[in-house]
């Protein structure tokens, strides 16, 4: 029996979706197989790498990289059990994903849009990281039982 695949989608796959993928793979080990993608992927934001490392999650060592939904998932006919959009742009522009799945929308502010001092920007990334971890734990509570 295979475990459900969860795809977290955001606009660039540089922060929020990467965090969600890492937290679900950490907390939902054996229950879900988490992945992430972006509509227009770009490099993982260095602040994302830093704040996740603060939690003991080395995204680079875990093999995280920015991925596009079209090239890596839809065109390869990768089926998902859950499609979770984590930003308003991805929710508005998300393609019709083939196959049966449950779709959720988590409205999470983009920390990469923060401006100001380096410490202020990192505080926004930390806030987003903690919000995403809480959402992942809630997702596990709602969907983790059989």
General description of the model:
This protein has one domain (about 5-145): Response regulator (Rossmann fold), CATH 3.40.50.2300. The mean pLDDT is about 95. It is about 40% helix and about 15% strand. It has five helices and four strands, in the order βαβααβαβα. The protein has a four-stranded parallel β-sheet with strand order 2-1-3-4. Strand 3, helix 4 (about 90-95) and strand 4 (about 100-105) form a beta-alpha-beta unit. The radius of gyration is 14 Å and the shape is globular. With about 150 residues, the protein is α/β, with parallel strands linked by helices.
The side-by-side strand order for the widest beta sheet comes to 2-1-3-4
Give the class from helix and strand content and strand pairing. alpha/beta
Series of H and E elements: EHEHHEHEH
For the largest beta-sheet, the strand count, sense and barrel status come to: 4 strands, parallel
The CATH superfamily appears as: Response regulator
> Number of DSSP strands?
4
- Assign the CATH architecture: 3-Layer(aba) Sandwich
State the main characteristics.
alpha/beta, Rossmann fold, four-stranded parallel β-sheet, 5 helices
Ordered list of secondary-structure elements with their pairings:
Layout (H helix, E strand, L loop, with lengths): L4 E6 L5 H12 L5 E6 L7 H8 L15 H6 L7 E4 L2 H6 L8 E4 L12 H26 L3
